[in-house]
Structures are given as C-alpha cells and as structure tokens.
Fold these 2 entries.
Entry 1:
Amino acid sequence: MENCRKVDIECNKWFQRRILQDVAEQTVVINPAYPPLEYGELDESFEYPYAREPHPRYKKRGAVPAFDMIKFSINTHRGCFGGCSFCAINAHQGKFIASRSRESILREVDLITKMDGFAGTITDLGGPSANMYNMRGRDQSRCQKCARASCLTPKICDNMDTHHKEILELYREVRNHPKVKHLFIGSGVRYDMLLQETDDAELRRDHEEYARELIDYHVSGRLKVAPEHTSDEVLKLMRKPSFTLFHKFKEFFDDECKRIGKRQQIIPYFISSHPGCTEADMAELALETKQLGFQLEQVQDFTPTPMTIATEMFYSELSPDGKPLYVAKTPEQKKSQRQFFFWYIPENRPQIRATLERLKLGKIGRLLLSRSAKAEGKEFFPSKERESNAEYREREQQKREQRSVTIVPKKVGEKGRWENSARRERRAAQFGNASGNNERRDFHANRDRRDFNKNRSNRDFNNGRNNGGNRGGNKNTPPVQFSSRRRGK
Ligand code: SF4
C-alpha cells in the first residue's frame, strides 16, 4: 500500500520524480512522465493522415462493433483531474488536462463530415470526462507544487477554474457547422462540477448554462453519468462525490427535459464489489436506485486494474490510511453483491430476501422487497437521511463498524481467500509465526517433493529447462533466468 501511495502521489505531480524499487536482485524503475502539454501541443499527433479505419487484419472477421461507436467521434483532450481510485487514467494520461486547440478540433469536424457514411451525427466530442476541456488551475504555480490525487474530491479545489465557457463555444461552433445535424456528448460528464457550491454568481450561471445546453441539444436520448455508488463510505474510498449530488442533478435533468418537452433518460453507472463495499451497501444502492425509478443496466463488478489505488486496496485489504477493509473476492461474495443491481428480476428475489434477512436491514429490506411501497408514498433515501440527520449518520457508522467485524470471518486459510504478503504480515502479528498458514505451506512443500520423487524419470528431461513447473522440486537445479539483464552473464 505504501509503495502504491508513493506511485499515486508521483503520477499526480507536475514535475515527477523517477521511482526505483529493489525486487530481489533486480530493480523496478518507473520513469517520470513529461510535464503537461500546453494548449494545442497535442494537435500534431491528432492530425497525421490516419486511415480512420479498423486495422486491415480485422477485415476477414466482419464489422467491428466498437468502431461504429467511435467512427464519428472526436477527442478534445487527454487527462482527468477526477482522480477516481479505480481508474488508471491519471497513471497513463495524467491529472493535468492537455487540450487540442479549437482550430484543430474544427478541422477534424470538417474531415469527419466528408467521410463515407456520415449522415450528420457526431456521436461524441469529449475525453476521459467530457466537460474538462481546457480546464486548469487559476494559479499554475500552485498546481506545480500540488500532489493531490483529485482536484474534485473531497472538495473542489478553490484554485480549479471550472468555467465551461470554452467547451460551450466549441459545442456551438460544431452544431452550427452546415453539415452537422446533431452533436451528441457520449463521454461521461462530471456533474459534481456543475453543482459546485460557490458564492460566485457568474460561475453558477456558467454551470447552469452548460447543463441546460447539454440537456437541450447534446443528449442522444440517454446521458451517461457515473455516480458509481450510493454509500458515502464506499464513495470516499472511490474518491467520488456524495450521492446526494446525483439526486440534485437528476431533479435538474428531469425538470429541464419537461421544460423542453423531450423524453430523455439519465444512465447512471455503478460498480459492485469495490474494496470496502459490503452487501449492506449494495442493498442501500438497490433501494436508492429503485426509488429513483431506475432498472439498472450499465453496471460492472470491480476488476482490479494495474496502477490503481483501488487494486492495492483489493490485494492488501487495507484502506489507503492503513485500516483493514472488507473486500469481496470469492465468486460467491461477488455474486451476492451483484444480485442487488437486478432486484427487479423475479428469479433473484428469494436470494435477495435471504441476504436481507441475514443482514437484518429492517426498513431498507422491507422497502426494497415491497411491490407497493412507492404507490403508497413510502420512500426512504439513506443518502439524503445521512446528509440531513447527524444522529442517523452516527448510528449507521457504528452499525457499519460492527458489521465489518462480523461480516467476514478472518479465519486463517479460509477457502477462497487469496494469499498476499500484507495479510501474511497481519496474521504473523496476530498469531505469531506458528500460524496455520505456515503449516499449510510446509505441507505443500512436502507434497511437491513427493510428486517430484514420483516423477523421477522426468528429472533428466527437466534439468536445464524451466523448473518453474515443478516448484520446490529439484532444489539443486538453478532456475532459468528470463531477465534480459542477465543475458550477458
Ligand atoms: S492546486 Fe488545486 S487545481 Fe491545482 S492541481 Fe492541486 S488540486 Fe488541482
């Protein structure tokens, strides 16, 4: 966790340092990224004479569905300062936004309108987050010394200029292009920037103007946003804003759609089994989204992604500040979380009912399973309750802590739990070196030796080759070196 935190800090800096870590007899080197590109420096790489077609090797396999999505879409910038803990964008594109110039983007619009099959619709004009185009800190010298992972959470940095003027002007120019009938925004929008609490009336007007134009002209029928979860504790670990902001944004969206007379939907993205997320958190997510009228489709189960702090939480079962964390890892634990997304499928109800009874979730359970609660006007939003009721917040926090102790038995060698060094150290501190885990390792070592002796006739064949497939077997055979650093020896 400590190593990952160091990498996380370095890759969020303006001027990064090289990181070295000794691993056995070798050293892992993470080279620093170049300082962020200035406005327009990206243009050249976007304006080479690309074929704008899938690679010819795919021709035999027929149409590429992903290509249809991106064929008429335009990238405006790279980088994202959201800093979500499960996302690797900051590791490979950076926290600071590198934007293409307005002229370069408009040249690409021209090019696209001349492409075969273009019928007047540009499907996306965005980047990792659609509304971060050309955004930066007001005082660049402050940004150059800053190592915050996110400019948006836990609070939007007072130095970040969240004006949307430039991206709005770009939208207007593109939709006024004679050959463009529709310009849709397919990339995710950071609605928390649009709901920023500020005393600056002009900035509030700017945010509202962007939100209205987006909803009025640039939604293809479904606007993608990513609240990712509803539980504050999980959102904190994800480095995402509170779900109450999503409530506010949805209210605004629905009112605006009604005002302009368009039937449009918000499509919210959610993740289950994120480190720190429990079944009770998922039950709360199911209830909140049910009451908001969603039957979720765009959901995913957490997948560890290299170079992210969430992946480190997943393996170490620790939060970034070193506290033990519940992590759903076995297929059963993950399935039990995922089922809550699909509470509306009748076949899932018995299993969901059993889980809710086991968790003793009372009101949340009753409302989630009820078919008539909404019609009877019974509603309960835990996220809103937490925000307005300090007593409820405290009670929930206590329950959560109790649950995290009892929810997963921390037995040594429990089936399905993964082995890792952080857990080994915790166990060593808890049980001493004579833990059951060490005994189990010895047993495996003996078994390997037994297997090896059984296959004695293969020994000569294996000698001089990779002995990795016969782990712990012939202790006298030196391991084959794969590293290019050793070739010269
Ligand atoms: S100073 Fe603020 S705006 Fe600049 S990088 Fe740090 S958090 Fe982001």
Note: The domain at 34-54+63-220 is CATH 3.30.750.210 (Transcription Regulator spoIIAA).
Entry 2:
Amino acid sequence: MAGNGRPAKPIRIDGQEIFEVDCLDGFKMLEDESIDHVSTSPPYNLGGFHADRKYRSYAGDFSDDMPEADYRAFIKQVVNECHRVLKPNGSFFLNMKTRIIDGVSIPPFWILEDNPFHLKQEIIWHFPSTANVDKIRFFPLFEYVFWFVKDIVRFKEKWNNEWAIVGNVWYISHITDRNETKAGEDEGGIQHPAPFPTQLSQAMVLSTTAEGDTVLDPFLGSGTTLKVCRHYKRRGIGFEKFFSHYEQVVRRRIASDDFPPTILEIKAGKNQKRREEHMSLDNFIR
Ligand SMILES: C[S@@+](CC[C@H](N)C(=O)[O-])C[C@H]1O[C@@H](n2cnc3c(N)ncnc32)[C@H](O)[C@@H]1O
C-alpha cells in the first residue's frame, strides 16, 4: 500500500525507478538477496525539537517527530530489511549523525546493537560548514557513515580497491547540493532540507558497485543516489514517502550531468582545475 494513498507503481525517470511509499511497504516488493548495494540517510527524528525552526522542516505531513523508542525500532527494522534484500557480496552504507537533544549529544551508536551486519568500517564525513552555529559548543562538523557488509569475505567481490587511498575521513562540502536542491522562485518546487552531497553518494556507490548493479535508497529525498546511479549506469531504486513534494527537484537532479570530481579523483590529484574550484568552497561557514 502506498504511503500517500497512491498505488505503489514505479515512477520511471531516465531508467531509474521510484516508488512513493513508506519504505517498509517498499521493502515488501523486493525479493531476498536481490540488491547489490544500499546507501541511505534516514530521517533524524528531530522534527519536534526543531519545530520552531522552519528551515529544517520537511514537506507535507512528515513531522519527523516519533517517540524516540519507536524511531529506533523503525530504523532497526529498516536495517533488518536492508540485510534481507542485499546480496551476500553487497555493501550497505548508512549515514547518521550525532543529534543534540535538549543540549545533550546523542551519537548514533545505538544502531550497532542487535545489528545483523558486520561493521566493515566507520567513516567520518567531515564538512567545512554547518547550519548549527549556536556558540554554546564547538560547531558540529562531521557525520558518521557506517559501512556494513553481509559477508566479511565476499564483500571483496564488489569492492573497488583503488578507493582505499581516500581513507576513512571524507572531506565533502554540502554547498553544491544545497544550491542544487533550492527551487527557483518561478519553479514552485520545494527545497529538500537534508540532501546528502553528490560526492558522498559517488564515494559510497562507486567504491562498491559495478556498472549494471542494482542500488537501493529507501529514503530517497531529493534523489542524490539516483542522480549518481543514472550518470554512472547503475540501476537505482528509490523509496520516498513524500515523493510528490520533491518530484521536481528529483527529476532535475536525475537528469543532471553536472558532477563534482569524485573524492578519489581529488585524492589522486587528477582534475586539478576542478579540484581548485571545489576546494575554494572550503572557506565558507554559514
Ligand atoms: C534525510 S532525508 C534523505 C535525503 C537524501 N539522502 C537526499 O540526498 O536527498 C530522509 C527522507 O526520508 C523520507 N521519509 C521519511 N520517512 C519515510 C518512510 N517511512 N519511508 C520512506 N521515506 C521516508 C523523508 O521525506 C526524507 O525525504
């Protein structure tokens, strides 16, 4: 059953497939061990906390405000479903951040308890700027990316080991993607409040898949994962409960061939001019 009352039939955009569903309903459509790779960033459950801060709010009916125990149970259910649908040699990248609730830091380590995956590595996504600029703490300048594998040996069948040199601290700015997801005044579209960067998705997808592989993002948002899939010839599947609110921005992004250099190209010193352009964003603090 579709989340918004729409039938759960795929919306096809440039060969990519999107279902406007609650992801738990979406998973029911997928066979066991049918997906080569999952990467995603779930909602933060900070809606209630930030209710007075409009710029953070999502579109439509999504309040992002569940009782914390229900939220954790829901995310764990999603992780279990990712495990079920992933092939034995597949990788699952889960981007989560430390949330600050009533002034207290809540790191996302609870996700490692009762988790069916092997934790292959923790990656730090370090960024140069943040929207959280209250001067009552050091500005938070990183999020976690947990790299999970189903089989600690067979993951190597898909691992593209030239990516090892990027290390496990990925320095990636949000800025290009935040600009990309802003709707123009004449467009009437909706800006997505929390896109992850194209470079983050490039690194997750390109390090552990090959052309033609099937990639799933159960919380598609503004469509970053499918933007990367279309450009690099992966078969992307996305679930997004509020897709109709973000349809314009998702269509625009999937069609886009405007890509930053990968962090591997930057690390390897290729594409020097684009590297300089990219790095010039680093001085930006919001
Ligand atoms: C953090 S955002 C993902 C952003 C995405 N990585 C991007 O690059 O734009 C989480 C998304 O999950 C969606 N969402 C929330 N609950 C959902 C559910 N139960 N099933 C599917 N999508 C859901 C929200 O509407 C939101 O767009």
Note: Residues 1-6, 51-56, 282-286 have pLDDT under 50 and may be disordered.
